[in-house]
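hiii so um. not sure if this is the right channel but i have a protein structure encoded as tokens and i wanna go backwards to a sequence. like what aa goes where. can anyone help
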């Protein structure tokens, strides 16, 4: 309705399954958050950065992407932007990396 498409969100278990299927990961948190803890092989695309669109524009719009942040708010916004910019498949991690950790999933810490 009115050009708005609903962002698809999945829980940590389904997110993990999609990673194993080859979806690419995008972390839309800040560089400091990404450096502190992240899901392995995630691409940093800080949604607060003026370069966010530039980073995203360098990605293949035909690929499948999983997007996460700390709690799920920024990633939903990022998914909405990406869909408006022509990306075919973007999925949000419901509850963000917090839900990932709470589900006992592995993260990389520096």
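sure thing!! here u go:
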């Amino acid at each position: 309705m009115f050009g708005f498409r609903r962002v698809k969100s999945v829980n940590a278990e389904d997110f993990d399954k999609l990673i194993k299927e080859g979806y690419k990961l995008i972390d839309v948190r800040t560089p400091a958050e990404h450096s502190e803890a992240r899901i392995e092989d995630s691409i940093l695309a800080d949604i607060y950065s003026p370069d966010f669109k530039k980073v995203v524009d360098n990605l293949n719009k035909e690929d499948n992407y999983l997007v996460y942040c700390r709690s799920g708010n920024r990633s939903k916004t990022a998914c909405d932007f990406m869909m408006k910019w022509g990306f075919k498949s973007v999925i949000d991690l419901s509850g963000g990396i917090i839900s990932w950790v709470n589900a006992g999933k592995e993260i990389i810490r520096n």
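oh and The chain has a mean pLDDT of 94.
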